[in-house]
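Researcher: We're teaching a course module on how sequence relates to structure. For the next exercise, students receive a sequence and then see the predicted structure as C-alpha cells, so they can try to spot secondary structure elements on their own. Here is the exercise chain.
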Amino acid sequence: MESSTRTSQTRFYGYPQPREAPETPPYTAPPANNPVVRGLPLAILGSLSTKLNLIPSFLYTNTKFSVLRTIKDLESYEPRYNPTVVKLPPPDAEDAQHSDERHYRIPSIQEIADQQALSPNHYHSSSFYTSQYQTLRLTPMKVIEGLLAQISSGEEHSTAFLQIIPEKVIAAAEASTTRYRNRKPLSPLDGVPVAIKDELDLDGYEKSLGSLLDFTRKEGGTSWCIQKLEDAGAIIVGKTSMHELGLDTTNNNPTHGTPLNPHNPHYYTGGSSGGSAYAVAVGLVPIAHGADGGGSIRIPASYCGLYGLKPTHGQISISPTLNLASSNCVHGPIASNMTDLALAYRIMAAPDPANPISSLPSPSSTTHAKILGICRPWFSSASPPVLSACSALLSHYTTSLNYTTIDIALPHLHAGQLAHALTILAEIASSPALSSSKIPAPLSSANKLLLSVGGQAPAIDLLLAQQLRSMLMQHLAHLFRQHPGLLIVTPTTPNAGWRRYGSDMR
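Model: And here is the predicted structure for the students to work with:
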C-alpha cells in the first residue's frame, strides 16, 4: 500500500498499488452448503451451538471459509487490514483550501429547493418542510406533534422505532420553530425530521443494536455525524429498529418487532438498517441514518425504492462511538431523493478534529471519460426482473447520457464474499460483550449461531482474507488506472425483494 499516490493530477492517501490480479475462472453462483433453518429447529440449533463446540466447528468447515487456503496467488500479497483510501486536494495550499471549502459548504435553503424542483417525487423532501416553515404555513412544532401522534397511533409505524423521547423531540422542534419565526434557520435541514439507526450514540438515549443487550456509552454523548445533524437543526425523531447486531440483511427482529416493507407487507424492508428505510419509505421522515458493513444501507434502500449511500471508508466519523466491525462498517444516509441524500452526506461528513482520516478533505471529482464497467458473470446472476431494470438503466445511460460500457474481469468473487463474511463475523465475535466463550443468552437463535461460527475463525484464515482484500483493491486500482473515470455497475441485490415467512418472526 502507498501512503500517498498521484494518479495524473489526483492524489490519494492510502491508495493501493495498481496491479492486475492473475486470471481466474468466471464467477459462478456457489451451492448452498448449509441448510436454511427456521422456527423451533433454529432455536434448538442456536442454543446448542453455544454449548457444543462441535456444531459451530462443523458449520464453519461446511461454509468453506478454508477455501482461502487454496488460493496460491495470495502468497505474493501482503494483508491489508484497513481499506481506507482518501482523495487529497491539489498540492497548492490555496487550491487545497478552496477545494475543502467547496466540498464542505452547505447549500442554502433556496439552492436545495431549486435542486429538488428539478426531480419532484411523491415524498415530502427537506425543501417541502423548509419552504412551509419560511412562509409560516407550518411550524416544526406542528409537524412534530402530528408525526409523534402518527407513530404512536398503532404498531404499524411504532415497530420501526426502538426508542423515542418525546420531550427531547418537542424541545428540538420548539427551538427550530423559534429560529424560523426570527428568520434565522441554521441550515436546509433546520426543522426537518430525521431518524437514527440504533447503532450510534445519541445523548439521553439507550443503545442496544437491536438486541436486549445494553451497548450505551457510560460516558454519554452523541456520535459525531449525528451531532452534526443536530447542529444543523435537524429534529431527531428517535432511534430506529435494526437487524439484531446488524448481522443479517432482512431486518427480521423477533425481539423488538419487524417493520414490514411499505410497498408489500409480505416482504422484508431489507436490513440491517430496515427501520430507517421503513421510516423514509412510508413518508415519516425524508432522511434517516444507516450503517453498512455488507449492504446494510444499500439493501434496504433498494428493497424500499429509496436512495442509499455507503460512503468511502473512514470519511464519516462516528467518534467517540466504537465500531464493532471497524474494517467493514461505515455510516451514511438513506433518503427519499438524491438531493437530500447529498445534503445529509455533506453535513454528516464534516471533518472531525478527533478523527484524522475524516479531517482529510475530499474534493469534488474531476471530469473523466464516461465509462461503465460490467462484470458480466456477476451481473447476469441477478433475477430476471432485476436484470430487466438494470438493463433499462444501462440503456438510458448509453443512449441519453453518452456513456460507454466495457466488460471487466473481477477475480475470486465468491472467495471475496467468503473473506468478507469471515472478517465481519470475526470482528463482531471478538467484542468482549459477544465473545464466543460467553455468548449472551438474550441474543436471537440465529445470532447465537453466527457468533459461534465467527468465533471459530483461526488466525490463518483471517489473515488470508486480508490478503485477498489487498489483491482485490490492487486489481480495482489497476482497472481505474487503465480506464480513467471508470464506474463499476452492478445490481444492488440479485432479487427484487426478500419474502418473509411466519416461522421467521419467532
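Model: If you want an answer key for the exercise: The chain has a mean pLDDT of 91. The longest strand covers residues 235-240.
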